[in-house]
């Protein structure tokens, strides 16, 4: 197999790898949205049911009170939260520092009460007569705003007292400059006997995937995820939940439960103690996932408390690491994490240096080129020598005609005499493919790239170039590289190689602009390096003559 055929095989293999990787991440089919108000009809989970998972009784009909229930609005410097008196659910969460994907004049909405998705954070107590996410609470205030000089703002909701005198209050606290909140319960036992209820903290969401990136039709993961120190990060697809094939740890002494989507995440992270994870299908396109916790026994006349941290916001890795151990794993690079994670760390360092992600990508490309310079130089020297052998290979072809066995033997003898490795030119491609795919997932997966401008017409490096200028430049540089390489002796192979820049240009039209920028810079540096090496080899050959 000669050099050109191997390159074609590598390109084909690369395409298969990309498609396979996309298929592995494709786990959310498009389905119809649930009816409005359906999240209010989500059943209350119960602890310690079959196989340790939360049981799901028959789904009750959505109550009219769900849509009509009063709502309170809390504003901080980074979000606007809408909280329903029905259960104290967070039914809408607007992130003021992030813009909507389709309409850049609007803020991004994570928890959604039906505009695009049905997605809410719900909590409740499990026990006879205790309030849950269907209970109508009394709102302490209709509107709260974090004022100058304040670090936190708290909404208090009071549930009606039970028949035996148990009083429950739910408190939701948001903090300045943070996407982390605390959801707490105060349980006053006015009865004559001790009580030991359970509490649940869950996300209820439709199965529609969130905003998706372009390029190869790849879909990022949308769905529940769980983490424990023993079993690490576990993603659960909506399809497996619906088919009752979902596999994840249920009872554990640590860990968190989350609902993951492209660029954003919401998670419950209890601080300590036993917990029970669950994930259920509520209706044809509505799912709930979360955690159940025991509440310490409360003696008569005493008040018990329980508080669980909530994160609901962008997958900014510095914030995720602070929220809970392992929570940064929701930024999922798949099987190339070993390359993508340090690659992002270097990108982030260059971003701090330049203040611009586009220039950071350029500097990373230069750094990678410098690291692999000796290796690529050796490969380019091999290719340059191959180019000087072109006329002699052509004469061999004319000499041996259709006798391929003698032609191959003569070629091998020539390569051996001239100390040329015909496969040496493929090494740069082999090196670039894993880095290329890793950078692809970094650009698709990290929220820091979302909406990040470079210069001029490139105002978002995570999406395609709106005017296709970078892909056309990439195609031109690929064509120049092809011309610098030795032409295959086979005319058909030569034509195929000349078509490769056109094929790559077409593929790159839909790739993120940041990825195309990386490839353009890489091609440009490769052209300069190869051109210089070609000059040196040609000059050496003339001197020898």
What's a quick, concise take on this entry?
The chain has 545 residues and is an alpha+beta fold. Helix content is 37%, strand content 23%.
What are the key terms here?
alpha+beta, 545 residues, disordered N terminus, six-stranded antiparallel beta sheet, nine-stranded antiparallel beta sheet
User: How many strands appear in the DSSP assignment?
Assistant: 20
Average pLDDT confidence is 83
Query: What is the count of helical runs?
Result: 13
Which strands sit side by side, in order, in the main sheet? 7-9-10-11-20-17-16-13-14
Strand content: 15-25%
Alpha-beta classification: alpha+beta
- Helix fraction? 25-40%
Low-confidence stretches: 1-9, 22-37, 49-65
Write down the Rg: 30 Å
The best one-word shape is elongated
N-to-C terminal Cα separation, in Å? 31 Å
Largest sheet composition: 9 strands, antiparallel
């Amino acid at each position: 197999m000669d050099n050109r055929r191997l390159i074609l095989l590598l390109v084909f293999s690369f395409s298969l790898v990309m498609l396979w990787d996309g298929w592995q991440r494709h786990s959310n089919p498009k389905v119809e949205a649930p009816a409005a108000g359906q999240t209010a009809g989500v059943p209350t989970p119960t602890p310690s049911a079959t196989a340790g998972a939360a049981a799901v009784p028959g789904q009750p009909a959505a109550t009219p009170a769900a849509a009509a229930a009063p709502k309170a609005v809390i504003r901080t410097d980074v979000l606007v939260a809408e909280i329903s008196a029905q259960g104290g659910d967070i039914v809408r969460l607007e992130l003021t520092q992030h813009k909507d994907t389709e309409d850049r004049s609007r803020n991004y909405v994570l928890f959604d009460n039906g505009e695009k998705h049905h997605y809410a954070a719900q909590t409740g107590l499990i026990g006879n007569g205790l309030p849950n996410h269907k209970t109508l609470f009394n709102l302490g205030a209709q509107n709260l705003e974090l004022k100058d000089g304040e670090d936190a703002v708290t909404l208090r909701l009071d549930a009606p007292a039970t028949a035996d005198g148990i009083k429950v209050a739910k408190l939701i606290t948001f903090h300045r400059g943070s996407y982390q909140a605390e959801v707490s319960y105060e349980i006053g036992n006015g009865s004559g006997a001790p009580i030991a209820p359970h509490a649940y903290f869950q996300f209820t969401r439709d199965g529609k995937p969130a905003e998706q990136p372009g390029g190869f039709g790849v879909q990022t993961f949308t769905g529940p995820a769980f983490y424990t120190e023993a079993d690490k990060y576990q993603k659960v697809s909506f399809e497996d939940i619906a088919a009752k094939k979902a596999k994840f740890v249920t009872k554990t002494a640590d860990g968190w439960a989350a609902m993951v989507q492209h660029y954003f995440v919401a998670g419950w992270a209890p601080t300590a103690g036993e917990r029970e994870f669950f994930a259920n299908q509520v209706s044809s396109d509505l799912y709930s996932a979360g955690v159940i916790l025991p509440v310490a026994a409360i003696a008569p006349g005493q008040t018990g408390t329980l508080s669980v941290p909530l994160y609901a916001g962008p997958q900014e890795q510095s914030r995720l690491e602070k929220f809970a151990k392992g929570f940064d794993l929701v930024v999922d690079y798949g099987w190339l994490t070993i390359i993508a994670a340090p690659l992002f760390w270097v990108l982030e360092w260059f971003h701090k240096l330049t203040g611009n992600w586009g220039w950071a990508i350029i500097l990373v490309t230069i750094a990678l080129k410098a690291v692999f310079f000796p290796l690529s130089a050796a490969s380019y020297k091999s290719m340059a020598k191959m180019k000087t052998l072109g006329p002699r290979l052509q004469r061999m072809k004319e000499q041996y005609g259709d006798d391929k066995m003698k032609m191959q033997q003569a070629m091998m003898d020539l390569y051996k005499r001239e100390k040329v490795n015909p496969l040496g030119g493929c090494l740069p491609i082999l090196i670039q493919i894993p880095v290329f795919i890793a950078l692809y997932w970094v650009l698709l997966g990290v929220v820091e790239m979302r909406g990040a401008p470079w210069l001029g017409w490139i105002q978002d490096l995570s999406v395609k170039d709106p005017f296709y200028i970078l892909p056309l430049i990439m195609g031109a540089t690929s064509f120049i590289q092809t011309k610098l390489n030795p032409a295959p002796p086979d005319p058909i192979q030569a034509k195929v190689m000349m078509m490769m820049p056109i094929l790559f240009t077409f593929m790159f039209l839909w790739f993120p602009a940041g990825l195309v920028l990386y490839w353009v810079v890489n091609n440009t540096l490769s052209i300069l390096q190869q051109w210089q090496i070609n000059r040196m080899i040609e000059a050496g050959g003339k001197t020898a003559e």
